[in-house]
Amino acid sequence: MKAILVRAFGGPEVLKLEDVPDPTPGPGQVVVAVKAVGVNPVDAYVRAGTYPAKPEPPYCPGSARSS
Question: Residues 6 or more apart from 2 whose CB is under 8 A from it?
Answer without folding.
Answer: 17, 18, 19, 20
